[in-house]
Please model this.
Amino acid sequence: MSHEKILVLDFGGQYNQLIARRVRDHHVYAEIKSFETPIEEIRAANYKGIIFTGGPNSVYDMSSPHYQKEILELGVPVLGICYGCQLISWMLGGKVESCEKSEYGKIEITLSGESRLFKDVPEKSVVWMSHTDYISIPPEGFTVTSSSADCPCASMENAERGIYAVQFHPEVTHSEYGKVILKNFLYEVCGCKGDWVMDNFIENTVEKLREQIGDKKVVLGLSGGVDSSVAAGLISRAVGSQLTCVFVDQGLMRKDEGDFVEETFTRLFDMKFVRVNCQKQFIEKLKGITDPEKKRNTIGTEFYKVFWDKIREEADGGFFAQGTIYPDRIESGKGDAATIKTHHNQVKMPEDITFDGVIEPLGDLFKDEVRRVGEKLGIPKELVWRQPFPGPGLGVRIIGEITEEKIKVLQEADAVFRDEIRKSGIEDQLSQFFAVLPDVQTVGVMGDHRTYDHLIAIRAITTDDFMTADWARIPYDVLARVSNRITNEVEHVNRVVYDITSKPPGTVEWE
Ligand code: XMP
Model:
């Protein structure tokens, strides 16, 4: 079954993924494509509507991303946002100029006249603005539908042609009625019905998977993370024990995590579950390595070696599945590619392993949608809402050389911290929280004895996107309990410190 689709045409704005997510929140499927997508492809896709995103450029600078005018003549409604709004004006002969002073932040706009786009929006409301150019004269045939103190044209439209444009960002939550405005565009202007619902997604995907897989086998690498877990759940629902999940436990997971993953999947789903326990092998490989990048590389290389060896054993033709999600696939949406740290998420298949094809059942979903599917499949909350956990695991939370003893100390301390956070009821307010073993020993006193033992650092952050983060203001009494319990219950720890560094300048992980 094909569903209604909205195109988010990307002109380089920072909110392009957010726009697509907001559209989907209204049960309409949205996909992001670069402004370089040929018009024939856009025409052929039968979109219900097109949204031009914002972007950092000026339309009158010819090196900025532009698009051919014919896109406004496809008979498909268009909504331009910020740069997209100026682009529409520029394309149709309106005038775009540089503001005397940039308009930035929460700004009040006043509506003028009737507009389908502003149905159920009060005459005055607050929107999020961030622009240096503005439309001084709208194109012929356009009516100004709102303005602000500094912006004579905060929105404009040519309703007859189905072209709408807003200078502000309706996709950002600071725009009070942003949700309503987007909904109006989808339902009042584009005539969408709202057929993007997760129940349908599961049903359709299971059906498609059955057709594609037939009676062949599928292997999937399960990491215990959200994406591969939900992918495994979907495929198992489609083809049951034709699915083999390979779970490599390198011994760098949190306390009892490997057992929890195994227990959950074997209990919930019909599949063949293969667990490879290889902590000893990893510790051996990591002996003497202290450099963070070298450690990451060693863990990554060894992981894939073990993984592919097992896949070679288990694969029997058929398909290879992975939990790729939509943001992994959007090319235009990629930000600054500078490598601060090497991450090892991309799976590259060795040449000697061949499959009939690769299956990525979550390739069209955003993370929040993956979680919704996971919940509907009955995967437990601990897995579906699991906080991010780095591929190299505790390996990047133990500074210096990794040993079995240090892993054990860190696992125990981390488990206490997580337990206290859960009990205190503040878990939902934190984006990520964990313990670190900085490999520092300090002097302490226990009873009448002097001790010289490990220091444990605890880290908890709040963030929207993990690119920047703030340290969480955990109540002192919770910190006190964590510190008490760790020093009492975890052997070889005599001191606990709390990391109060934001990102930047610190990263989330210590290595
Ligand atoms: P940093 O430390 O770079 O972390 O501020 C940002 C987010 O990424 C996670 N992280 C990783 N995830 N493989 C991963 O899959 C890695 O090597 C890795 N390093 C950091 C980190 O936990 C945080 O959520």
About this structure: DSSP finds 14 helices and 19 strands in the chain. The pocket of xanthosine-5'-monophosphate is lined by residues 296, 340-341, 343-345, 388, 390-392, 432, 466, 503, 507-509 (CB under 6 Å). The first strand starts at residue 5 and ends at 10.
